[in-house]
Design a protein that fits this description.
about 20% strand, five-stranded mixed beta sheet, 9 helices, alpha/beta, 2 domains, single chain, Nucleotidyltransferase, domain 5
Amino acid sequence: MAMIISFDIGGSAIKGGIARSETDIVPLGRRPTPKEDFAAFVDTLRAIIAETGEAPSLIALSIAGVVDPDTQRLICANIPCIHGRALAADLEAELGLPALIANDADCFAIAEAGLGAGRGHRIVFGAILGTGVGGGLVADGRLVNEAGGFAGEWGHGPIIASAAGNPPAVIPVYACGCGQKGCVDTVGGARGLERLHKTLHNLDLSSEEIIGQWQQGEEKATRTIDVYVDLVASPLALTINITGATIVPVGGGLSNVEPLLAELDHAVRARILRKFDRPLVVRSQCRIEPGLIGAALLGLKAEAAAL
């Protein structure tokens, strides 16, 4: 039986896993991510591979970045030593193994479609509400664009409303790290929630504090959540209308706040063309290492296609 190794590459840690089939994916340990030294980065992967005591047929990496499909170069600002590299080719040269590079939100989406909340659905839109906002789109069990990681990136583009909430509050056009202004990413993640609270009330609170106060009925936090849900629900509803997704598993830190997901689900279902009498925006089910699972599933499919 073929064995591949999947990696979840984050800014702070590299996690590995052994995959022999879709139902046989075993996590390995984690090591700190070398951010500035490519040789050290490769050595970390090599050490995790060596821990298995086996020779994999392929390695598959989930990374918080996108690959230019024309040049194959990676855009990954939080790990400078791999940013701008043709990473798959470089790793193949260094490790002597075929390498597959995938966007982390795509890996999340394929994991949820195959083994999580998206099972049984033809079109699955995986949404990330973490530090920022991301997403991936799966149709008939395949990523819509397996090369790159651009499809499903609903977090970027100048789309945020200029007013939101009841009564409407004026929303500034916040600058986004992608270089544009007014992106969903500027308001939809944990840092965005904190930014909204500061704008509305001139208070610096963590997202955890804001959510805790909201759940206790505190007036200012309740206002912030009202504005947040209004801002995020419309672009997510538009995304669902365009893609035809029938389920939206949500990952990232804010997905752990189920009352917030319920509010978002209610607002989204009120704004889409197709009506559902069941939850549409739901908590993801692959709670442990969806990046590892998604990368493993993509690697297994690539391996099977090559046979």
